[in-house]
Design a protein that fits this description.
Elements (H helix, E strand, L loop, with lengths): L1 H14 L2 E9 L4 H16 L4 E8 L6 E8 L2 H8 L11 E10 L1
Antiparallel strand pairs: 1-3, 1-4, 2-3
């Protein structure tokens, strides 16, 4: 019985879509620097099979805001990505954020 439950959870993870979306408010005048510092992580994420989309986009209205959108097919792969790679200095540029994760 335990094995079938574990199997069910794995099956659900394979067919689940995880959306990560929201906004980051940056220190004044640092938006382009933040986006440039994000390029390596964007490229690494997009190379992963479970990453269907990953973007950090400048907001067309607020020059101190970037919008985040990620689409993943596996929660395990998303978690592994979050814990991989080197830390960069980009988050020192963030004043506040509102980013949420949705499972659909």
């Amino acid at each position: 019985m335990i094995n079938s439950t574990a199997s069910l959870c794995v099956s659900e993870d394979i067919y689940m879509t995880i959306i990560v979306a929201g906004k980051l408010m940056l220190k004044s005048g640092t938006r382009n620097e933040f986006i440039e510092k994000s390029r390596e992580a964007i490229l690494q994420a997009r190379e992963l099979e479970a990453c269907e989309d990953f973007s950090v986009s400048p907001d067309p209205i607020d020059e101190n805001r970037v919008n985040i959108f990620e689409k993943w097919s596996s929660h395990n792969e998303l978690d592994a990505f979050r814990h991989s790679g080197s830390d960069n200095e980009s988050f020192a540029l963030v004043e506040s954020f509102n980013v949420n994760e949705y499972e659909i």
